[in-house]
């Protein structure tokens, strides 16, 4: 009887603790929902990014002979890992690692054609302590977070005939996005837009190519446990269902810019047309996720879509600029990069500019402006 009583007591206490944990989790979920709801309402009623976000902190990336860079093309912000990974595609042609105070730690690999080397890295991606670097020489390099090389994959030598403009590592599979219609042949022999590499082998490809002036715009990201990607001028955002090859349309803006008249023109004529009409174009540039809402950056403004594929705000002015004391964008174009809580904008600290030379960029973190 005593043993039975003890067991019953343990069960009751365990159930009470379990119920307390459930209540605590529910409270946390309710708080998170309230925060998301506040953000949702603010986004819905906002006219500009400047209204939504304010600068909350600045990280100055240390300038050393080993870490000197000219611009930032991509950022992987990993606060839980105490690391910031930064890609400079064109000037230093390197991938650097800093801590959360901006101190330089190391860089991945070296410039060259041998093992653990790459040339002009185009894009980077990260998941579960693995970072992937894509070079212009169609080489993929897989590293751990400490900088140790795990594996290399040379696309040309493996019979993979597509260029990579952007990529995402998701559930150990690599999804590669291309805007170059003449270099994107999938395993079926047809041209596609997105390619999936599993276990270092091409396994499937998705989406139809479009005329995009090669590397113009478009993006792919993780969103709601799915891979989604966008067209550029066709105005579509697609999602890849887990068990289907054919993508589904998650949201469509309709055709944004009609390029049908350019299909048969020479590359020089197309380029001249672009130069003359760039300000009249509307197209999808980038996708980003902030607090579970999908931000779609276009040439003229930003649209925000919720998890159900419904429009939250169609027209938000893209007016987020560096604050006073900073100049220029430390990127080839004015492209912001989102993270879970807001936007990271690389810029130059004017106080650190000396004798005409510029320091490494600073990272300005913008988060939701709760007070407005």
Walk me through what this model shows.
The protein is of the alpha+beta class and 372 residues long. The protein has one domain (66-340): Neuraminidase (6 Propeller), CATH 2.120.10. 16% of the residues lie in helices and 39% in strands. The protein has helices at 2-45, 49-52, 267-277, and strands spanning 53-60, 74-78, 83-88, 94-98, 104-108, 110-111, 117-118, 121-127, 130-135, 139-144, 149-154, 161-162, 166-170, 173-177, 184-185, 194-198, 201-206, 220-223, 226-230, 236-240, 248-252, 284-290, 293-298, 302-305, 311-316, 326-327, 337-339, 342-349, 362-368. Strands 1, 26, 27, 28 and 29 form a five-stranded antiparallel beta sheet that branches. The longest helix is centred in the N-terminal third of the chain and has 44 residues, at 2-45.
Keywords:
alpha+beta; 16% helix; globular; 372 residues; Neuraminidase; 3 helices
């Amino acid at each position: 009887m005593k043993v039975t009583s003890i067991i019953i007591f343990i069960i009751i206490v365990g159930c009470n603790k379990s119920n307390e944990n459930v209540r605590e989790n529910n409270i946390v979920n309710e708080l998170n929902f309230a925060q998301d709801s506040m953000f949702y309402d603010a986004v819905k009623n906002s006219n500009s990014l400047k209204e939504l976000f304010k600068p909350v902190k600045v990280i100055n990336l240390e300038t050393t002979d080993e870490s000197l860079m000219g611009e930032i093309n991509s950022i992987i912000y990993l606060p839980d890992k105490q690391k910031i990974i930064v890609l400079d595609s064109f000037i230093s042609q390197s991938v650097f690692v800093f801590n959360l105070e901006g101190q330089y730690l190391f860089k991945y690999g070296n410039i060259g054609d041998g093992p653990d080397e790459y040339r002009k890295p185009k894009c980077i991606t990260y998941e579960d302590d693995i970072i992937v670097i894509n070079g212009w020489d169609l080489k993929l390099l897989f590293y751990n977070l400490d900088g140790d090389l795990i594996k290399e994959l040379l696309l040309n030598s493996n019979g993979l005939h597509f260029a990579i403009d952007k990529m995402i590592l998701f559930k150990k599979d690599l999804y590669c996005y291309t805007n170059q219609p003449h270099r994107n042949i999938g395993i079926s022999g047809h041209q596609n837009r997105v390619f999936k590499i599993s276990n270092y082998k091409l396994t499937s490809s998705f989406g139809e190519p479009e005329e995009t002036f090669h590397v113009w715009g478009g993006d792919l990201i993780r969103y709601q446990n799915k891979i989604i990607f966008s067209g550029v001028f066709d105005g579509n955002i697609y999602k890849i269902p887990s068990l289907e090859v054919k993508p589904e349309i998650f949201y469509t803006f309709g055709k944004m810019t009609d390029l049908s008249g350019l299909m048969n023109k020479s590359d020089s004529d197309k380029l001249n047309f672009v130069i003359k009409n760039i300000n009249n174009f509307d197209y999808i540039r980038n996708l980003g996720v902030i607090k579970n809402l999908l931000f779609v950056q276009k040439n003229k403004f930003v649209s925000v879509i919720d998890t159900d594929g419904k429009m939250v705000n169609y027209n938000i002015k893209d007016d987020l600029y560096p604050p006073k004391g900073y100049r220029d964008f430390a990127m080839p174009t004015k492209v912001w990069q989102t993270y879970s809580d807001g936007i990271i904008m690389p810029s130059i600290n004017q106080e650190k500019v000396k004798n005409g030379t510029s320091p490494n960029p600073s990272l300005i973190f913008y988060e939701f402006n709760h007070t407005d």
